[in-house]
Amino acid sequence: MARRAIPLLKQLFTSPSSNLTPIRSVTYMPRPGDGAPRAVTLIQGDGIGPLVTGAVEQVMEAMHAPVYFERYEVHGDMNRVPQEVIDSIKKNKVCLKGGLATPMGGGVSSLNVQLRRELDLYASLVNCFNLPGLPTRHANVDIVVIRENTEGEYSGLEHEVVPGVVESLKVITKFCSERIAKYAFEYAYLNNRKKVTAVHKANIMKLADGLFLESCREVATKYPGIKYSEIIVDNCCMQLVSKPEQFDVMVTPNLYGNLVANTAAGIAGGTGVMPGGNVGADHAVFEQGASAGNVGNEKQLKQKRANPVALLLSSAMMLRHLQFPSFADRLETAVKRVILDGKYRTKDLGGTSTTQEVVDAVIATLD
Amino acid sequence: MATQLLRRRASQILSRANPNPSSPLSLARALSSDSAPIRATLFPGDGIGPEIAESVKQVFKGAEVPIEWEEHYVGDQIDPRTQSFLTWESLESVRRNGVGLKGPMATPIGKGHRSLNLTLRKELNLYANVRPCYSLSGYKTRYDDVNLITIRENTEGEYSGLEHQVVRGVVESLKIITRQASLRVAEYAFHYAKTHGRERVSAIHKANIMQKTDGLFLKCCREVAEKYPEITYKEVVIDNCCMMLVKNPALFDVLVMPNLYGDIISDLCAGLIGGLGLTPSCNIGEGGIALAEAVHGSAPDIAGKNLANPTALLLSAVTMLRHLNLHDKADRIQNAILNTIAEGKYRTADLGGSSTTTDFTRAICDHL
């Protein structure tokens, strides 16, 4: 056996893209019938949404992945998410979504937030990591930001006390803090992550963030193999821009999570390439990890130059969630190889390709 | 004819150097800037505070800045009139002089007294925190082209301290935004932009989610923006702002923000240029009071060893000079500091060199 292993090992170590060669895994043993196609709700969204979800659909077809999409029209200026969409997601349990634009200060509450509340998707996950071949100012970044998605500053409870004085309530409950802490530690445990850092501002907001920290500390005692630390949010942002390699998994309340996720996405290559999703006890919605609140501008749309990488990587996460690991691996490897090659990159990564060119490149690279 | 000449000279001075038209202090200062020295309060602080304060005094003497320092120390007894370790006399001195410089202060742990920073902020009504962040040409970080100012509302917002437990396991925290405070900080931001020749002011907010509170802040900023048509005004959502700051900080010029976002963004910008040890900061209060401060800690482990880096306090003192409209002196000192760091021969330990505080200070005085 050693005689056969040596040439194999030599091939693995000498081929230049050896780290991207998929190792054929024979240990995943499906149950009979697992290969039946699964329905996934697809919300195209606004702005560049239709463009990038179209990209995912094309790639899924090319791979003959056992998923089929049920398309629904939802736009950011609707009052509520239509009931049929919610029912579809409740039936399928999994949804893929483009961004929904939120009108600024216009009295309509964000549909993204509504969807998360309705389906109780309490954990939002963004994986920010350096893609090989993509030059950034910071190296060695591999951060997962797990953010509480339902309460905190986004409760939407505001009122005008007297004219000219407005109050907004930030609500923190033990129930929500505990479950997000549990999710974060469980994620770290299942994905072989070594550290969990809680981000807070408990020196000023002693009761609110204090309660969040208490819950995190309690859960930390149940995972003695994972290192737990705490960091104040302003120091955290400062450390992120100077020494991001010290962070591994970060668990945060709602608002800080938004800022930390977007900062981490910015340092690791931009929001155009970071995968992520929202998950609850029963449902999961996958979307571009950190979208920085925008759905692309007019020029991107007209020239069809939106970056599909983030949504493609998120759909790979979705395939793994649906228990199709080999399809997920193929998709991820193809996308990473296209980025490594550097020939087909959209404008935000420093290239000049259109969305379609990137998609074609990914399809061509699929094995 | 002499009175005519005097009147013309007075109006010249007033029109050229008028930071806060409604403040009586600036009037007195404008007329006295050429003759009598300006009194300023100095709080050396704890730890490395006294050493770096000494640095500042030497550099100012070398540059012949007409400032007379009035030193005050933080006591070890609680003054019942202020409920903290800062005495009433110290606070009165700042109110009277209108400008101050504060070194790092370590708040003693204990109960029954307010933190020192909180005392200063409440008593002097310091409503805006200004941090100019620019890349130091001698100290290389991953970002070379940072040149922005963050102006943060310092009194209300999420830091009102109003929290309570509703029932066991449910806590509420109030975020308060008032029209008065938002207008005040927006006015200061645009005024600052105008007097320092800045072209763009961006308001940072999360009004798509917190529609009424950040919406009110934005409305106030828009009102003030209309009075300054020559300055470009933009509104940027905070998550977009964070992302753009780490990708391309040159896009921003002056940023004005409510309290929490300001805290996070100003520390993020400090991280872009090299940390809190190099960042100047200045707090502006009602009536044109300016209290410049060093935002780093008191570093008790290197106190008294002549190793401290006085850059942050020096640059803060420069910000104080600009507030007093002594722009030429401020430019001289700032260039001296930047050239000394750029040269690289004299640098303190935290910048990667091995000079002492006194050597570094002498090098700056030589560069003046």
TrEMBL record, chain A:
What's a GO biological-process term for it? isocitrate metabolic process
Keyword terms, alphabetized: Magnesium, Manganese, Metal-binding, Mitochondrion, NAD, Oxidoreductase, Transit peptide, Tricarboxylic acid cycle
For the keyword Oxidoreductase, the answer is yes
Q: Where in the cell is it found?
A: Mitochondrion
| A Pfam family assignment | Iso_dh
Alphabetical list of InterPro entries matching this protein: Isocitrate_DH_NAD (IPR004434), IsoPropMal-DH-like_dom (IPR024084)
Q: Does the keyword Transport apply?
A: no
Q: Which domain of life is it from?
A: Eukaryota
Record's Gene Ontology CC terms? Answer: mitochondrion
Domain Isopropylmalate dehydrogenase-like residue range list: 39-362
Subcellular location, principal: mitochondrion
GO molecular function terms noted in the UniProt entry: isocitrate dehydrogenase (NAD+) activity; metal ion binding
Tell me the protein family, please.
Belongs to the isocitrate and isopropylmalate dehydrogenases family.
Q: What does this protein do?
A: Performs an essential role in the oxidative function of the citric acid cycle.
The protein's name: Isocitrate dehydrogenase [NAD] regulatory subunit 1, mitochondrial-like
- Which species is listed as the source? Durio zibethinus
TrEMBL record, chain B:
Q: Which GO terms describe its molecular function?
A: isocitrate dehydrogenase (NAD+) activity; magnesium ion binding; NAD binding
Keyword Methyltransferase attributed: no
SMART domains attached here?
Iso_dh (SM01329)
Q: Does the keyword Transport apply?
A: no
Gene Ontology BP, a term: tricarboxylic acid cycle
Question: Which intervals hold domain Isopropylmalate dehydrogenase-like?
Answer: 39-364
Q: Which GO terms describe its cellular component?
A: mitochondrion
Keywords in alphabetical order: Magnesium, Metal-binding, NAD, Oxidoreductase, Transit peptide
Name any one Pfam family assigned in the record: Iso_dh
Cofactor section: Mn(2+); Mg(2+)
**Organism superkingdom:** Eukaryota
Subunit description: Heterooligomer of catalytic and regulatory subunits.
Which family is this sequence assigned to?
Answer: Belongs to the isocitrate and isopropylmalate dehydrogenases family.
Name the record gives this protein? Isocitrate dehydrogenase [NAD] catalytic subunit 5, mitochondrial
Q: Which gene encodes it?
A: LOC111293941
